[in-house]
Amino acid sequence: MAGGRLGLYGGAGAGAWELVRAAISAEDPAAVAALVSGFGDAERRQVAGELAGHIPAAAERGEVLWRERDDLREAC
After folding, report:
1. Which domain of life is it from (predicted)?
2. Contact 19/28 with Cβ under 8 angstroms?
3. CA 43/CA 35 separation, integer angstroms
4. Where would you tag: which of 10, 35, 44, 47 has the fewest CB atoms within 10 A of its CB?
5. Cα 39 to Cα 16: distance, rounded to the nearest angstrom
6. Cα–Cα dist 70/73, whole Å
7. DSSP labels for the chain?
8. pLDDT tens across 27-67, in order?
């Protein structure tokens, strides 16, 4: 694993997806790239499998945040 980022996004027991998800949540694309580039085949497959389900949920959450922002702008 990408050891330099391990402490920032999880502990030694954290799985590949948990680390990547934490880096995504922190909006840290450099960490995502560093993590994934240090993973082996099994870890990359794990991340790919989880990411497929994460993308639609993240997109939906982004839309909600944009609507909330727009509602706040209209209220001001």
Report:
1. Bacteria
2. no
3. 10
4. 44
5. 8
6. 5
7. --HHHHHHH--TT--HHHHHHHHHHTT-HHHHHHHHHH--HHHHHHHHHHHHHHHHHHHHHHHHHHHHHHHHHHH-
8. 899 999 999 999 999 999 999 999 988 888 888 888 888 88
Other CB atoms within 10 A of residue 59 CB: 10
Looking at the 3D structure of the chain, how many domains does it have? Answer: 1
What is the pLDDT at residue 8?
Answer: 64
pLDDT at position 70 is 86
Identify the pLDDT of residue 36.
93
Q: Does residue 49 come out as left (phi exceeding 0), alpha (psi in the -120 to 50 range) or beta?
A: alpha
